[in-house]
Amino acid sequence: MARQPSYSPSSSSPSASSSFLPAHSDDRQPFIANTDKEYPPSSYTNFTKFRPRRRYIYSIAAALTAASLFALLIFGFWTSNAEEESFNLPEDATLQAEHDDVQEFPQSVVIGEPTEKFRDNLQPNLKYITSWISAGWTNDVMTYANLIYLGLLTERIPVVPMFVPSHIGGSVPPIDFGEVFDVPRLSKAIRLPVVEWHQVKNRSSEALDELGCWNIWQAVQEDEKRPRWSIVPQHLKLDISYTTVPSWVKVIPGYRHDLHAWFWSLAALAFPETRAENLVTPLESPTLKVSLPPDEQMLCYDYLYYVCANQPYEFDFDYSPAWRFVGRHMRWVPKLEQLADTYVRKATGIEDGKPTPPWIAIHVRHGDFKNWCNDVGIPLKECFASLPVIARRVEEVKAELKERKGIDVEHVIMTSDERDPEWWSDVVKMGWFGIDHSKTVEEHGAWYPVLIDAVIQSSGAGFVGTDRSTMSTLARRRVQSWRDGVVRTVKWGKPDSDDH
Ligand SMILES: Nc1nc2c(ncn2[C@@H]2O[C@H](COP(=O)(O)OP(=O)(O)O)[C@@H](O)[C@H]2O)c(=O)[nH]1
Ligand SMILES: [Mg+2]
């Protein structure tokens, strides 16, 4: 049985649907399949071999034992210190320590080069886990972090698909997870190899693979009488037969306004006994009309955005396990960081040879958030926070940076999905900098405005975000975890929403 949620659905919690505001935008957009375009080539094709760090430590420990008890005591002190450090030091220091280690898995996690059918490339003695996405890009980042966290819980190798476009236009080709996030660094940090689908199955394969997966969507909501739709299985040429998960995965049984499932309820279904006890007749796959139980080697779930350990929309909370154990280790690929740096330098007009100054980033999310204002008939000018309201939070961030870290941060950079040129000229009048994306799509591709903005949001000394935006939520988490930075969130919905 699922336990009772730790809050009441009727409370004023951000996830209570009584509010007209989105708990978090899960703004599904129609997707246009674009499978005949070549994907960008991956910069990472060689598999790193991993070996658990513990084995390395054990062998050193054995050698030290043989040498002398004194040496062992010293070693014990060192390892316990090292463990402690890995939780107390800023993350960069932790990662530095991890980079010094050579970690190898006993074998390559796939057999070799990507194959036409994915099963031909799976190691028979290893188990894998995968899932699909279908929302805004940041929701999708969270969904993949949840997938990888479930990989840790079930001790399975996460096989991560690509990112597919939503707000940036349905005809844009997908981009590899590994073009955005540093996968080898992630694998090392979490001590679990993470692979991408294109490393398992050939991206140009025309072979359709049959696969049995769990269908969570029909156990957590009743409006759609089908598993969560995603374009990803089409890209991967998968023909999926779904088995609906038991209703006890749902966090708030019978409550139609929340869609979350428990991490551990889903993890339980990865194990043979609980799996066997919960098998029901699978839905036929759409193309080959096969009926398959959930695959035991390539465990898969339709959609893992709405998953939590203790309460819904958990990325908002400091203890979020998916953030702490996975998300915070999903660092940008260096190429993206360098690119963002050139945009910041250009925006702030820093001369060549001078270091990039620290900045405070703002994320103002407008775009489709206007729908919620329109639905309740509040004019946009009153519904969205005004620039002076945002400036109050920027000043708070400046003051706290000065007080807590002794630094004066002068540069303020605005990122937003707002397109109104008048609004942007008001931004400049505030003394803030905008990022010039007029050539970004042409020069780097349609994914890059949002990627560069996300990197800029996460790389400042401080951050001011928009309430209810997952893009702001992750930027806030990153600035806190990676920069020990100062963050604020601007509320919106009514003229006085942020008056506190
Ligand atoms: N370039 C750019 N795009 C943005 C910005 N804010 C929102 N967007 C676009 O709108 C999408 C919002 O969806 P999502 O990432 O899921 O975040 P959320 O909807 O705010 O929770 C982003 O993925 C971008 O495509 C921004 O500051 N810069
Ligand atoms: Mg979204």
From TrEMBL:
Keyword terms: Carbohydrate metabolism, Fucose metabolism, Membrane, Transferase, Transmembrane, Transmembrane helix
Biased composition (Low complexity): 1-19
Domain of life: Eukaryota
InterPro entries: OFUT2-like (IPR045130)
Region (Disordered): 1-38
Biased composition (Basic and acidic residues): 24-38
Segments crossing the lipid bilayer: 56-78
Gene Ontology annotations of biological process type: fucose metabolic process
Cleavable signal peptide: none
GO molecular function: peptide-O-fucosyltransferase activity
Gene3D superfamilies: 3.40.50.11350
Record-linked PANTHER family: GDP-FUCOSE PROTEIN O-FUCOSYLTRANSFERASE 2
Name the record gives this protein: GDP-fucose protein O-fucosyltransferase-domain-containing protein
Organism encoding this protein: Crucibulum laeve
Taxonomy of the source species: Eukaryota, Fungi, Dikarya, Basidiomycota, Agaricomycotina
